[in-house]
Automatic annotation (TrEMBL):
<dbReference type="InterPro" id="IPR011335">
    <property type="entry name" value="Restrct_endonuc-II-like"/>
</dbReference>
<dbReference type="Pfam" id="PF04480">
    <property type="entry name" value="DUF559"/>
</dbReference>
<dbReference type="InterPro" id="IPR007569">
    <property type="entry name" value="DUF559"/>
</dbReference>
<feature type="domain" description="DUF559">
    <location>
        <begin position="213"/>
        <end position="270"/>
    </location>
</feature>
<protein>
    <submittedName>
        <fullName>DUF559 domain-containing protein</fullName>
    </submittedName>
</protein>
């Protein structure tokens, strides 16, 4: 018989049954090698997702940052593979977690409902709140809002069981075109530097961040600022901003993630001089 298609190529026996596969037929599929037995009650097909298979073999589910990344949300560079052990699973039935995999626990009660091999995004977001730093979590929340799949009310509901200081991070979200832009905004605001995101400037268009009246900070993400065309466009914008009297700082992904201390020193060197407060000449 034909092997039914199941999400991620991994499912419980009862999922196969709902596709019309009887216990006897499932046993024969295993004997024929068309379906493999993973662990008690779980099976995989030939097209099974390797990461999901690894999680289920441990008695866990794919969760947290791994699920968010697969949903198209921005991720920290050190994400790795994140899994969650069901609340009702017995520790004695869990296998040791290999290096490079992270065990995550969402805030609040986990539903007794079996979500399958991969957690829903709402549960993954709750787990990520515990698994990341404040600045990276705000970048993830910004990414969720930017995707259009989530509203601020949706995220408020998802984080209802989180501690107050994490729920408060929702007030730190804002408009951003990339995760690195979110990081820069959050870091500057955390140092009491007022930043306005996504400002429209005549003859230039929208810039990432504006400090004061004339310090423009552009944050180049890996995804959107590579290639000759993007490089040329960015330099044309820089030239126009200079002609209008704006101070400009352009940051790369590498500088934001790995060299922030030096970047921040350059930014704060400008602020005491008051250069960022002078009014540019717009035309």
């Amino acid at each position: 018989m034909t092997v039914p298609r199941v999400p991620y190529g991994v499912a419980r026996a009862r999922t196969f049954h709902t596709h019309g596969v009887t216990r006897g037929q499932l046993r024969r599929l295993v004997e024929q090698g068309a379906v493999r037995h993973l662990r008690h009650g779980w099976y995989q097909t030939d097209d099974a997702d390797p990461d999901v298979v690894r999680a289920i073999r441990l008695g866990a589910r794919l969760s947290c940052l791994t699920v968010l990344g697969r949903s198209g949300l921005w991720l920290p560079p050190w994400a790795g593979l994140h899994i969650r052990f069901p609340e009702r699973s017995r520790r004695g039935n869990r296998r040791p977690v290999p290096a490079g995999m992270h065990t995550c626990t969402p805030y609040g009660p986990q539903s007794l409902k079996d979500f399958g091999a991969v957690d829903p995004i709402s549960l993954a977001l709750s787990a990520a709140a515990r698994c990341t730093t404040a600045e990276y979590f705000v970048a993830i929340l910004d990414s969720a809002l930017r995707s259009g799949q989530w509203s601020l009310d949706d995220l408020t509901h998802v984080l209802q069981h989180c501690p107050g200081h994490l729920r408060q991070l929702l007030t730190r979200t804002g408009r951003a075109d990339s995760g690195t832009e979110s990081l820069v905004r959050f870091r500057l605001e955390s140092c009491n530097i007022a930043v306005t995101p996504q400002v429209e400037i005549p003859s230039v268009g929208r810039v990432d961040l504006l400090v004061g009246r004339r310090l423009v900070i552009e944050v180049d993400s890996v995804a959107h600022h590579t290639g000759l065309e993007a490089y040329t466009r960015d330099r044309e914008r820089d030239r126009t901003l200079a002609a209008l009297g704006y101070e400009r700082i352009r940051l790369t992904w590498q500088q934001v993630i790995h060299d922030w201390d030096r970047v921040f020193a350059d930014i704060v060197a400008i602020i005491p001089r008051g250069d960022h407060l002078r009014t540019p000449r717009l035309h």
